[in-house]
Amino acid sequence: MTEHVVDVAGLSRRFGQKVALDEVSFVASAGRIYGLVGANGAGKTTLIKHLLGLLRAKSGSVRVFGRDPVRDPVGVLRRVGYLSEERELPEWMRIDELMRYTQAYHPSWDMGYADDLLDTFNLDRAKKVKELSKGMRAQTGLVAAVAHRPDLLILDEPSTGLDAVVRKDILDAIIRTVADDGRTVIFSSHLLEEVERMSDHVTMIHNGRVALEGSVESIRDAHQRSSVTFAERLDEAPKIDGALSTEGGGRSWSVVHNGSIERFRQSVAQLGGEVVQSRDATLEEIFIARVGRGRLSAEAE
Amino acid sequence: MDITITVADGVPIYRQIVNQIRYMVASRLLEPGEEIPPIRTLALQLKVTPNTIVKAYDELETAGIVRKRRGAGTYVSEEGASPLASRERRRIIEQRVDALLAEAHQLDFTADDVLGVFRRRQAEMGRKANPKLSMEKER
Amino acid sequence: MHTPTTAMLWELWRLTRRGLALQVSMSILAGLSVLTVAGIYGAQDTAATLMLMFLGLFSITSLVSLKGRDSRAGFPLYLGYSRPVHTWVLAGVPMAYLAVSSALAYLIPAVVLRTAFDIPFPLAPVAGVLAAVTVVIAAVSWWTRNKAIQVGGAYVVLGGTILAYRTLHPENLPGNDFPPARWPEIFAFSLADYGFIAMLGAAAIGVAIVGVERQRRGDDTFTLRIAGGVGRCATALTRLVDALRVSCPTASPVRAQVWVEMKRGGQNVLAVGIMTALAIPVLFSLWNAYGLGFALLGTLLSPAVPVLVGVGSMLGFRRRHGVSDLSAFDATLAVGTARLVGVKLLVTVVCIFGAWALIATSFWISLALEPWGGRARPGLVEFLGAMSGGRLVASVTVFVIQFAAVVASAAVVQTFFVLCARRVVLAILGVGLYSLALALAVAGGWAGATFVETHAWLVAALIPMGTVYVFRQALADRILTPRATGAALVMWAGFTAICLALLGDSGMRPPGVSQALMALMASSTLVPLAAVALAPWSFNLLRHR
Predict the structure, then answer these.
(1) ipTM higher than 0.90?
(2) How many Cβ atoms are within 10 Å of B50's Cβ, its own excluded?
(3) How many domains does chain A have?
(4) Half-sphere exposure in the Cβ direction for A275 (13 Å, CA)
(5) Nearest CA of chain B to the CA of A228: how many Å?
(6) What is the pLDDT of residues B112-122, one digit of tens each?
(7) Domain extent at residue A56
(8) Taking a C-beta distance cutoff of 8 angstroms, is the pair A188, A35 a contact?
(9) Is there a single domain that holds both residue A116 and residue A264?
């Protein structure tokens, strides 16, 4: 098997008392899109910062293209494109200056591609970064992140706070990166529908741990959302085997559950109920069931 | 190609694509020999990961519905298009009937009851000028 | 918090309390130690005069603690615009608070020093003046968001006030003869004086309220009108600048970074150098005409200006929410840390020397205006001529390297300050206090020469150990290549050789210099070498936390 693009093993990190990452392992191989999901402060950004070498691995190891991003920043960062959540760019630079400046660091820079994108986005090259709106800033940051055709594109919550047009631009850039030359994309997002459409592989981080990971299909296959009706009204949520979250009231409840469906049906039957309808749960339902307050005992697999 | 993806109803995205292309082939919205969009184009159009399209096209090819020509795109199969189409049409109708029967069971209708309703509705529609049965597109 | 006013006062207190506490305690500490030491050497009068100036200037800076939280120009408490409060409350309450707090920041240390040393530090008069000046400065910087107008306004208002006061009270001119014994006489303010101060303060508050009201309603009209007038000139100027615009070189990361560092900080240093160079002849003519001590002081301090500007911004930290940090954009540039820091430091040092060259030229030209009847120039020529060419070059080389080492050390301190601000402050405070205690102990005769020598030996031993440690770390983390380390060593050897040659040349080995001091001097030649590894190593800690 070929070398992984990203290989994180047993990575732990704490900031003071707070455990930001706890024994996280994460592997990415070429030509695929990886979605990172998790609540605010779950550790997604901390993981991404480790990939960029902005944080030093205190325990565990981080390898990007087989290299340590801390000891070999040039070797790693040259082949990486990065768009941060805050879309940090030097405020005083003009867009054209930013492009030339970024080009100097990346021998593989494709000025034609950058120009095409700038034209598509209708960005005025003479404008300074500080004069740009939020969306234009994201577009500018995106061009700076993809115009050297990076082998690995890392986007930290690229869609947060943007309008539909700019979100589409960003998704297009992700798709092109993967479709054109089989490069790799890692992106984190709160928009779970976007993650569901866009990722080949999803990693859900919760309280610094990998709560769930796998291909979108395998995750959805493993989780069902069922409507359950009971003969009698229930005052509190029924405790059903395999249930991750139970919502509803009275006789009808909707349950997100994983594990064996047979066991689930038996458990419902024992409680005097009937499964009316079952389907694969969506990522959003799984996320809320796993991470949200409605979850029962998520630790019980 | 007019494909709609819904994330909310729990059907895997690649399956939604497969189903809709199968439907288009069966209903002759896609002619035999017609080229279907390249992976990149469809991925950009639907805003889904290209690998999903790859998977859908692979499945369609295995089922003999499309044929890839090396370096020249993907086309709706010529050979066996008609038997395939008829089989496919039956499959789609069967799925509909299955859903109808499940619903009927839930509402305490017997199969005969359903058949009765079916006949009556057909008769009522026949009285109207143009008995065009509009079939909803399947996802 | 029952009323908006108490709520605002609470907010102001929370925003400023730390700064005020620091300011008051530092003032008291500095006053006590300086006056004690000066007392031992019998220079208490001079020290007291300096202390009075220091306290006065320092207490005005309480404004900064309010201002420094946000880089936004204009009224700093703009979040209050959406609160249900009249603008006169919104602007008036902070004004009053600042007046009182700056007066207190002076009064508390003054009272302490008064009682401790029996020096008649004036209370009400100076406190009143400080309150008024604080309010005036606040008004000038709050009433518009246009920074140029703010700065210009500050000069005009302060200059005007001082001039007005001088005309009104020529007898109170502090001149050169300014001993504490005369303070009660100099600072005997009449009711009319206090009236003048109060009027000034009230006028400033009025101006601030009008300005804040305009900003609150989104029409900083005065600024807009000025901008409209300036706009046309600015457009022409922008075209000119655009024509002169050097586009970013893309051939190599180093060249691109040099370009960025020039745009980000270097050109400011040069600009400040030009401005300072232009100011020197003015200062000289003022000096010539009025014999102003300030003009001399200004001339002597002028080389510090480009240093402060350059060193202050050299690492390009981005300030957000009141915290400086390395921006992710800089941290993720595909370039090694040593190169990243090296270019920053190099550009800063080169630009500072460029600015100094301008200042020196201007100084040389301005010497024609000096008030000693043309004696300074020949004196300077003679002084420089006494040195041989080789010696001059060697001295300059040593100075340049030492200065670069100082700049690099400043970079290290700045880096660690971002990494762990509290510990750095504590360390600096600790070393400062310890040195102070040491100085006091020596001055008071409580510590003998051996005690001091032990310290010298200790530091002399620590520097090489630290140097070796940092180089080992830097090599282990692959920040420095063995080749770069070798080059640094060769350059250091050259530097040491020049230092030794200079020392031997001057025959400097006075019999009074002890072995410990010699060891300390020898070991301190390692500092430039240590800086070569220390600056990238510390920056690397920041880049990869």
Answers:
(1) no
(2) 27
(3) 2
(4) 21
(5) 14
(6) 888 888 888 88
(7) 6-207
(8) yes
(9) no
